[in-house]
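REQUEST FORM: STRUCTURE PREDICTION
Request ID: SP-0412
Submitted by: Lab K.M.
Chain count: 1
Length (residues): 532
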Amino acid sequence: MKIKKIFCLLILQALPITLLPQQNQISTEEKIKILEEEIETLKEKRATKQYKSFQGLGPAASEVYYLEEGLFSLGGYGEIKYKNSLSKYKTDFADVHRFILYAGYKFSDWIVLNSEIEYEHSGIERKKIIYCSDVISGSCVKKTDTIQQGEVYLEFAYVDFLFSESFQLAAGLLLLPIGITNYYHEPTTFFTVERPYTETLIIPSTWREIGFMLHGKGFYDIFMYKVGVTNGMEGSSFSEDSWIRGGRQKGSKVKSQDLAYFASFDIFPLEGLMLGASYYFGGSGQNEIIKTDLFSRFDFQVALPGTDDTTTAFRTYLQKSYQNSRIINPKVRISEGHIKYEYRGITLQGLFARGWIKEEEVRALNAKTLKNIGSTVEGGYFNIAYDIASLLKLKHKKLVIFYQNEYVNTQKRTLKSNGQRNLEKEISDQINNFLGVNLFKSSFINDGFVNSLNSTEIKKLLEAYDILGIANPVNDRRIQTFGFALYPHPNVSIKLDYEDWSSKSKFYQDSDFFNPSNNNIDVINLAVTFIF
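STATUS: Completed
RESULT:
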């Protein structure tokens, strides 16, 4: 205590007189007491961590925004899971799914650095490789081994300029504010073990890209907005069952020929009620997608025959120039609306999302990927939950029971031939007959019309009758999830739930014996999650 008083007296001597108003009316003891209180207050501010969302960001990720100038923040979250698939043909597994570290620094009261580093699956990914273990008489003896590969990602890293409460600018690797979960994805903020599948397959959480974002709130904190521009996606990595998820570029040497734009708005008209919507519009060509139509059948080898070096080089040049003139930029569009309401232990949450790509652009994507990518996709869910801790007289704890019903279809609409393929083939045949040479390829498999059924027999039958573009009914999914989440501490949750899976598929090949990855297998999930 003596040392503290001496320290306070030294501060008093150093302070300008103007900082101590009414100096003659306050005794030295009172001044020391005031300074001691100020020191204790500063200590509390440094020691007390605030778990409060900043403009929709996760509570632990928001810590840096509430620090004093010049301070460093460290936090994170984790998810450790066990999954029991109710099929003897599918292996159960346990996994350290995510361990996240947040690091932030507050340069000043209006400049903030925030970042997230993610370790998935214990930071290790196992992959099978096939290689030649020995070469005998020019032949390869193939061998399969399992290797381990690190899986560490930078989830976001940006500098945020807080000009005012209603006008702020973030620049760097950003989380896209589409839906609820992508921006607010810490595992203690939702009750199910897995994130909603709509916000995984339609909205590809965790979704981050490099760009700029204007954001802020106003009207007495009733209104919150986020608008921005980022690099676009990589359409050559789109798929049938997870749509655009594979096209996320994740901030690593991203192709930025084509950009994307987004806008998100939330309103809070009543205490505990959030209503919101968002829209995404982005290119995905990145100079890799070529328009697919009748002229894609043009055969340069026939148009410019010859095997000498000069002819070959000139033909290659013409073919490349022709392809470059036909590069297109398929546009991805996603719109969604959401609601969340919390009142006296009851939580209601719902979201509906739809995505679409124009058919002629889907055709070009299909030709590139050889997959039947959905031209329209949609999904939605609602979750109702109730905290029964008070009924069971559990003090300082939460025990939430919940039910969630979800629908996801990544092939709501697909590109169908509708005679177009036959028409193009007929035109090319007639031109070839007229010219007397096969200037246009009569047989052109890579034309964008693809079937995606698991049933090989039915697939062959449809293709024999030239019926192409049929979606796989496995991708039309229904998931009902019910379970509970126990919170022994506000930052720790233990979750147990049951996922009841079904799809529109009736093919016997989609039974778990033939296809253990199909969407008709129920799952029991257990998880321990935390934030810090």
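NOTES: The radius of gyration is 30 Å.
Reviewed by: T.R.
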